């Protein structure tokens, strides 16, 4: 391990932050694609120099950029995200049917083993796959064609497919999450999907046993325990130990169980991090104090982590894709805020300091351990 | 015909060009013909000005030339003669909205 590379997507471009293994001194590169929204930048686990970025604006639409040299240079690749066949309709906020319409790419998930294979999650919720390094994209329509698909409604941020997780050893199994449809799992390489939302309870849904309609904000998994999933839902932090078939709440003593990101420690599968936010209508930390909460018991019991984080007058948010973990021996935890800070803890959350403090609003943070 | 096209800064960066560009437009000089020639020369611009599938102008993009807003003209109607003869540029403009 020689260092880390942090990939930051913001409202006005992408930034690449690099440091050696001490994580003391940082080189900042960017903005790349200045002025464009960059929802996500992700690196290939199989080839760390291969990066993918989702670049978009309301003015000029969607582009996908690819780097083959760790973010020094970029080239635009394919951006045609056409739905397979006639996609029909899903539901608008008020329950009326609206046609499926591509809006943007929220999340890119490179394959664990093949640098040219990458998945994309889009709004309106669809899962796409490229096998040629982003040159062309094909929808995996089995998800959208789920029997409940025509009932899916958007969350406040849109009907977005924002989370894609790959099983570490079984390439046929993927987990995805959609706001506000819920979580889904495939065991046959994305041909068919099972809604995995049993145990979720959402105030906005009259049926307590509703199969879909849950506003899942983020899923997380430790690769050593791929059947144990953690979820930050709109409200509630949840856990499953059977691949999502059943969930139980683990919010415990959190000051608020509303939030967006959730992450698992690199070396401790029962250590979980969340960032509580006041409420669904107040997207800032409780009492204006930015606190990461850590559970070392797989949930239920949480401790606030505050050293180095602002403890007064702080009203930023941390978005769902804006927390990441490195795999150095002393596990690093990173998150970005809508105030433009990217914080690092080099000691599993005990202490924090900003790497950068004045970026545009941060949409996503990923880290590569090089 | 050789037509001058002026692009907004974001699209110039995407196309990796400085200043105006020129495109050769075969046949009648219309908005569709100019944009088609532009997209053939700079494929990265396909879909950024008009929808790649339908050809419809993106909502936050306007077309100006000769001190006129041509955004709502039929895309296959002739552009002004001064655009066709290269004495005036065809402007692709990002709408003033947000930022």
Describe the structure.
The complex is a heterodimer of chains A (370) and B (99). Chain A has strands spanning 3-10, 13-20, 27-32, 37-43, 51-57, 61-67, 75-76, 89-91, 97-99, 104-110, 118-123, 126-130, 138-139, 160-166, 174-179, 182-186, 194-195, 216-221, 229-233, 237-240, 248-249, 258-264, 272-277, 292-295, 303-305, 323-325, 333-336, 342-345, 353-356, 362-369. Chain A is globular, with a radius of gyration of 19 Å. Chain A has one domain: YVTN repeat-like/Quinoprotein amine dehydrogenase (Methylamine Dehydrogenase, Chain H). By secondary structure, chain A is mainly beta. The mean pLDDT of chain A is 97. A four-stranded antiparallel sheet of chain A has the order 3-2-1-30, with no helix packed on it. Chain B is an alpha+beta fold. Chain B has one domain (2-94): Ubiquitin-like (UB roll). Helix content of chain B is 22%, strand content 21%. Chain B has helices at residues 9-15, 31-41, 81-84, and strands at 2-6, 21-24, 61-65, 68-69, 90-94. Chain B has a five-stranded mixed sheet with strand order 2-1-5-3-4, covered by helices on one side. The model of chain B has no long low-confidence stretch (mean pLDDT 95). The A-B interface holds A 35-36, 57-63, 76, 79-80, 82 and B 8-11, 14, 44, 47-49, 52-53, 58-61, 94-95, 97-98.
């Amino acid at each position: 391990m020689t260092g880390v590379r942090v990939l930051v997507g913001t409202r006005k471009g992408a930034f690449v932050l690099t440091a050696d293994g001490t994580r003391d001194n940082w080189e900042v590169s960017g903005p790349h694609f200045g002025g464009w929204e960059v929802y996500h930048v992700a690196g290939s686990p199989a080839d760390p120099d291969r990066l993918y970025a989702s670049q978009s604006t309301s003015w000029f639409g969607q582009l996908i950029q690819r780097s083959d040299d760790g973010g020094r240079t970029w080239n635009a690749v394919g951006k045609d995200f056409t739905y397979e066949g006639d996609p029909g309709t899903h539901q608008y906020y008020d329950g009326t049917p609206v046609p499926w319409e591509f809006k943007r790419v929220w999340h890119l998930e490179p394959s664990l083993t093949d640098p040219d294979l990458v998945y994309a999650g889009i709004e309106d919720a669809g899962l796409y796959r490229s096998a040629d390094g982003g040159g062309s994209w094909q929808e995996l329509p089995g998800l959208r064609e789920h029997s409940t698909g025509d009932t899916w409604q958007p969350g406040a941020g849109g009907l977005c497919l924002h989370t894609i997780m790959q099983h570490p050893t079984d390439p046929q199994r993927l987990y995805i999450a959609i706001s506000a449809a819920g979580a889904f799992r495939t065991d046959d390489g994305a041909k068919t999907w099972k809604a995995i939302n049993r145990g979720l309870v959402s105030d906005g849904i009259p049926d307590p046993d509703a199969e879909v309609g849950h506003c899942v904000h983020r899923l997380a998994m430790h690769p050593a325990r791929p059947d144990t999933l953690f979820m930050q839902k709109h409200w509630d932090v949840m856990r499953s130990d059977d691949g999502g078939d059943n969930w139980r709440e683990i919010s415990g003593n959190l000051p608020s169980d509303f939030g967006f990101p959730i992450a698992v420690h690199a070396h401790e599968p029962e250590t979980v991090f969340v960032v509580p936010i006041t409420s669904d209508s107040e997207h800032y930390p409780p009492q204006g104090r930015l606190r990461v909460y850590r559970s070392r018991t797989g949930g239920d019991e949480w401790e606030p982590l505050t050293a180095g984080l602002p403890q007064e007058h702080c009203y930023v948010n941390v978005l769902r894709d804006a927390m990441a973990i490195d795999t150095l021996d002393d596990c690093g935890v990173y998150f970005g805020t809508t105030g433009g800070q990217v914080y690092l803890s080099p000691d599993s959350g005990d202490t924090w300091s900003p790497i950068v403090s004045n970026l545009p609003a941060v949409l996503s943070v990923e880290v590569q351990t090089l | 015909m050789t037509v001058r096209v002026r692009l907004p800064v974001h699209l110039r960066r995407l196309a990796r060009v400085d200043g105006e560009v020129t495109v050769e437009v075969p046949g009648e000089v219309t908005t569709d013909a100019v944009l088609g020639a532009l997209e053939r020369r700079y494929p990265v611009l396909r879909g950024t000005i008009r929808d790649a599938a339908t050809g419809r102008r993106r909502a936050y993009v306007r077309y100006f030339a000769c001190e006129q807003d041509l955004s709502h003209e039929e895309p296959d109607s002739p552009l002004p003669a001064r655009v066709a003869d290269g004495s005036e540029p065809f402007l692709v403009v990002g709408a003033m909205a947000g930022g």
